[in-house]
Design brief:
Belongs to the COBRA family. This is COBRA C-terminal domain-containing protein. Keywords: Cell membrane, Glycoprotein, GPI-anchor, Lipoprotein, Membrane, Signal. The protein has three domains: 2-178, Immunoglobulin-like (Sandwich), CATH 2.60.40; 199-391, Immunoglobulin-like, CATH 2.60.40.290; 401-501, no CATH class. The chain has eight helices and 30 strands. It has helices at residues 2-12, 21-24, 119-122, 126-129, 257-260, 263-267, 427-430, 453-462, and strands spanning 29-40, 52-63, 73-76, 83-88, 91-93, 100-101, 106-109, 130-140, 153-155, 160-161, 166-168, 171-178, 199-208, 212-221, 232-236, 242-247, 249-251, 284-287, 321-329, 344-349, 356-358, 362-364, 368-370, 378-380, 383-391, 401-407, 410-414, 440-441, 479-489, 492-501. The strands form six sheets. Strands 1, 2, 4, 6, 8, 10, 11 and 12 form an eight-stranded antiparallel beta sheet that branches. Strands 13, 14, 16, 19, 21, 22 and 25 form a seven-stranded antiparallel beta sheet that branches. Strands 28-27-26-29-30 form a five-stranded mixed beta sheet. The longest helix has 11 residues, at 2-12.
Length: 520
């Protein structure tokens, strides 16, 4: 998909001409959005608002002031149900993978150029003072000759004020200036302060050479209740990098073909790519099993090799971290020790966990490590970036587990909702994904949801309950919890919790959290 979108950009993007006069007169940050073209998409429908249009656009963030713009953030107020399928030069913040819905607008942050230098410091080098974002996507409605423009654009960096943008045909632009009333917290260093979140990822470059570097990646679970089981980590290389070797983790695919037939293969002509770990632009990385901890080739890394378990910091601080190391090779033109860039679009997920939304990498003060030979000295990382991830609220039918309810005073069990953890398209033919779940006999809890049909139908007939012609689909949850009220009396009540693991994977050291509202 990304390759196809890139070809679309190459065919259709026509770079805008000279900057408007407003940019020449701007003393601050000049931002712009240019709609380049759009084409009617399929299917062709009569309803104007439902008709899709493929579009190409560019956005610019140009530093025309005297100060460096750190970690620029550009908001584009899309308003025509836009779906982004491609973006280069900037990363949509807090959106999922492409295609990504941005109908309520989106914030773009820098990937390969997170900071914008000043013209004074760079002799007006546009490659350092300007970020150019190429965008391809789909929008709906607005029949020609109408021009579907965003509602607004603005720079979201603290300390800047943006006026209402001007619109000139298919171009929108504004000059954002420093806010004289803003009192910034002066940083003593050029680094960002470290942030807090549910989970943090630290990208520490330990050794740097002209064409490669060694990096240690640390994931730390800071949420007091949440945990990750069998985590998978992914990110996106933005400058043609590839993973030569790893310790403490492994990539799900070990394929060197993308290196051989790409830029890396042209530059590293004498390299044996059969020894390369991974050449994917978006590798998926998993933790090693415990038996690999003492493996001198791929193990021997502190906090590695626990089958992807990240416990809460309250439950076990010693197991709230995971680490692995990589040797990363770079591609032209980044062939010097100073050209160091972290990957973008970080994402972490587990088999039985909430979804996480990760922010962009922020350059922070280099991490400190004890001297490995035991000397009373401190070793600093060459460069360090921090990625902060926070749990997002589960969407309907996107949860990972569900709860059934039962009590001593009723012999029926209230089941999990239909398709509580999602339904496949094939389920529509066999069952009704929109029907209300049917009551269960208590013994049905002891078998997986796909084997409860006969017991559920027999129970409904015994209790004179209606049985639909097309039965409701199951909950499709790999783990379920039963909450059973054992007793209820004037001074209080008692309950029993039973957990069921229907997956073939073991969940070690499980725990569950309960929230009691007022009155309990």
């Amino acid at each position: 998909m990304f390759h196809h979108a890139n070809e679309v950009i190459k065919r259709h993007v026509k770079y805008p001409g000279p900057l408007p006069k407003e940019a020449e007169d701007c003393n601050g940050v000049f931002i712009s959005y240019d709609l380049l073209d759009r084409r009617k998409g399929f299917p062709r429908v009569k309803n104007v608002t439902a008709q899709s249009w493929a579009f190409n656009a560019t956005a610019k963030v140009l530093n025309t002031g005297k100060d460096v713009v750190k970690s620029w953030k550009l908001f584009i107020g899309f308003q025509h149900h836009e779906i982004l399928v491609y973006a280069s030069g900037g990363i949509p913040f807090e959106t999922g993978d492409f295609p990504a819905s941005v109908e309520n607008g989106t914030t773009l942050v820098g990937s390969s150029l997170p900071d914008l230098e000043s013209s004074i410091n760079t002799a007006n080098d546009l490659t350092q003072i300007q970020a150019l974002i190429q965008i391809a996507g789909t929008q709906f409605g607005v029949r020609p000759p109408g021009i579907p423009m965003p509602k607004n654009i603005k720079l979201e960096n603290d300390g800047y004020k943006c006026p209402q943008p001007s619109v000139r045909k298919s171009s929108m632009f504004a000059c954002c200036k420093s806010d004289p009333t803003y009192k910034s917290k002066l940083l003593k260093t050029k680094y960002f302060p470290r942030q807090k979140g549910d989970l943090t990822i630290t990208y520490d470059i330990l050794q740097a050479y002209d064409n490669n570097y060694n990096v240690e990646v640390t994931m730390e679970n800071l949420n007091p209740l949440a945990r990750l089981d069998h985590w998978n980590l992914t990110f996106e290389w933005t400058r043609g990098e590839f993973i030569y070797s790893m310790k403490g983790a492994f990539t799900r695919e070990m394929d060197s073909s993308k290196c051989i037939y790409g830029i890396a293969g042209q530059y590293y002509k004498d390299m044996d790519f059969t020894k390369v770990t991974n050449c994917q632009k978006n590798p998926i990385i998993s933790d090693l099993p415990p038996e690999k901890y003492n493996d001198t080739d791929i193990g021997k890394i502190p906090f590695c090799c626990r089958n992807g378990s990240l416990y809460s910091i309250i439950m076990d601080p010693s197991q709230s971290k995971s680490k692995f190391q990589m040797q990363v090779f770079k591609s032209p033109p980044d062939l010097d020790k100073k050209s160091l860039f972290p990957p973008a679009r970080w994402k972490i997920m587990g088999l039985l966990n909430s979804d996480y939304t990760c922010g962009p990498p922020l350059k922070v003060e280099p991490s400190q490590f004890p001297e490995p030979r035991g000397l009373e000295a401190t070793v600093f990382a060459i460069s360090t970036w921090q990625i902060v991830c926070n749990m997002s609220k589960p969407k309907l039918r996107k949860t990972r587990c569900c709860v059934t309810f039962s009590a001593y005073y009723n012999d029926s069990v209230v089941p999990c909702n239909t398709c509580a953890c999602g339904c496949d398209n094939d389920d529509d033919r066999r069952c009704n994904p929109n029907a209300k779940a049917m009551l269960l006999p208590s013994e049905a809890l002891l078998v997986p949801y796909e084997n409860r049909t006969l017991k559920t139908v027999a129970w409904a007939k015994l209790k004179h309950l209606s049985v639909p012609k097309k039965l409701p689909c199951g909950d499709n949850c790999g783990v379920s919890i039963n909450w059973h009220i054992i007793s209820d009396y004037k001074g209080g009540w008692s309950a029993r919790i039973t957990l069921f693991n229907w997956k073939s994977i073991q969940f070690k050291d499980w725990f569950t959290a309960l929230q009691f509202k007022k009155g309990c």
